[in-house]
Specification:
alpha/beta, Rossmann fold, globular
């Protein structure tokens, strides 16, 4: 299922699409997605800290939880349900957002494109729970595919 199909099948009138870019990218990588979604859907594609037009700082986020904290103001502006899309490192952050108690009830769909190795989540004790959730979800998907 492609991104547009997934979002369109679950989209409500107030849904927002939050798209997170890969390392060395910027929110501009989602321009074509925004065009395809059309005027009826609000696309929010922020630049992660240190990329694109975001301020460069010497105090860069070191954990996924810190990345989510840096995005909190942007996420809070997206009223109502959200569809999360993440590419590479943005996929890891999207997964963290989807499992954050402040946002998990608002997430309508989660699309991960080439997410970074989930074993990176094992490096941080707070993120270890995410690794386990990711591994469980992967096992469910494999089983569903195996069973047709």
């Amino acid at each position: 299922m492609n991104i547009l199909t997934q979002i369109s099948s679950r989209k409500s009138a107030t849904a927002r699409v939050v798209a997170l870019h890969c390392s060395l990218g910027s929110g501009r990588q989602w321009a074509k997605l925004g065009a395809e979604l059309g005027v009826g859907t609000k696309l929010i594609a922020p630049d992660l800290i240190g990329y694109g037009h975001s301020a460069v700082t010497f105090d860069l986020p070191l954990t996924l939880a810190q990345e989510v904290e840096c995005l909190r103001a942007t996420l809070d502006q997206a009223n109502g349900p959200i569809h999360l899309v993440g590419h590479s490192y943005g996929g890891a952050i999207a997964f963290k957002i989807a499992t954050d108690p402040a946002y998990e009830h608002r997430v309508q769909s989660l699309t991960l494109i080439e997410p970074v190795l989930p074993t990176l989540l094992l490096d941080s004790a707070p993120d270890r729970r995410l690794h386990d959730q990711f591994a469980d979800l992967a096992a469910e998907v494999r089983e569903d595919i195996w069973n047709g």
